[in-house]
């Protein structure tokens, strides 16, 4: 009776054991072991310092910079940890897919942006592939493309380009001991515009506090419009139309 073919996990472990000491499952294999969203590749990928064999039935990434601190054991298989895995994926996967995997890992509490960024900086100093891809994903989620000044400039450009009235900036609302500051406000129309970023919403304490604040302001009659930098860059006319509608202006 012929032997059963090895499972994918057995193939990964065999590849790791075939390499020199310190070899780990990495890239798409590590992503699948960690259960990252959208990472179900059947490829077997490993990282080691040097590979001497000319032929192998799997993908080998040589790295003299591999650090044992990057290694965890998943299902009995040594693999790169999640933050290192995310950085490595920048060289082998499309940005949207990496972003979805990163977001899911963050929602599960498996990793945070700070850890990925620290690993990214360590790898960037050594000139690794895919650094730019992952840096862009981190910047988008940290709101670094949406600094208060950057978002303000984008929003005011949209407003001025479409002939809308200029809002008040950092408008304060005070009501019986309650004080809130609005990023952009049209006080006479009770319309507020606020900047959003994904990192902001994945902070649960901030998320819940923001909802309580918005509910209080809504009861005072305020209408909220929330936008990201992507909205302002990619859908400026839609943004302008929505602002005009909220203000009761023909567009």
Describe the structure.
By secondary structure, the chain is an alpha/beta fold. β6 and β7 form a beta hairpin. The protein folds into 2 domains: 8-141, no CATH class; 145-247, VSR Endonuclease (Endonuclease, Chain A), CATH 3.40.960.10. The model has no long low-confidence stretch (mean pLDDT 85). α2 (27-33) packs across α3, α3 (82-89) crosses α5 and α5 (113-124) packs antiparallel against α6. It has 11 helices and 9 strands.
Topology:
Blueprint: H1 8-18, E1 24-25, H2 27-33, E2 45-48, E3 59-62, E4 71-74, E5 77-80, H3 82-89, H4 95-107, H5 113-124, H6 131-142, H7 148-161, E6 168-175, E7 178-186, E8 191-195, H8 198-202, H9 204-219, E9 223-227, H10 229-234, H11 236-247
Parallel strand pairs: 2-3, 8-9
Antiparallel strand pairs: 1-2, 4-5, 6-7, 7-8
Helix pairs in contact: 2-3, 3-5, 5-6
């Amino acid at each position: 009776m012929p032997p059963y073919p090895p499972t994918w996990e057995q193939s990964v472990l065999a590849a790791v054991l075939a390499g020199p000491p310190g070899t780990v499952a990495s890239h798409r294999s590590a992503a699948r072991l960690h259960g990252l969203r959208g990472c179900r590749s059947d490829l077997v990928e490993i990282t080691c310092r040097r590979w001497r064999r000319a032929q192998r039935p799997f993908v080998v990434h040589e790295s003299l910079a591999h650090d044992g601190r990057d290694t965890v054991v998943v299902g009995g298989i040594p693999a790169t940890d999640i933050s290192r895995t995310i950085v490595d994926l920048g060289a082998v996967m499309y940005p949207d897919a990496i972003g979805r995997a990163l977001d899911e890992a963050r929602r599960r509490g498996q990793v945070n942006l700070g850890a990925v960024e620290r690993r990214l900086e360590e790898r960037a100093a050594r000139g690794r592939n895919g650094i730019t891809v992952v840096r862009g994903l981190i910047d988008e989620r940290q709101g670094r493309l949406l600094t208060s000044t950057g978002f303000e400039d984008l929003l005011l450009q949209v407003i001025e380009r479409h002939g809308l009235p200029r809002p008040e900036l950092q408008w304060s609302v005070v009501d019986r001991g309650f004080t809130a500051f609005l990023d952009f406000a049209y006080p006479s129309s009770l319309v507020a515009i606020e900047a959003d970023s994904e990192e902001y919403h994945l902070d649960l304490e901030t998320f819940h506090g923001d909802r309580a604040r918005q509910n209080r302001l809504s009861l005072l009659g305020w209408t909220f419009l929330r936008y990201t930098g992507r909205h302002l860059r990619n859908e400026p006319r839609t943004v302008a139309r929505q602002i005009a509608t909220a203000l009761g202006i023909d567009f």
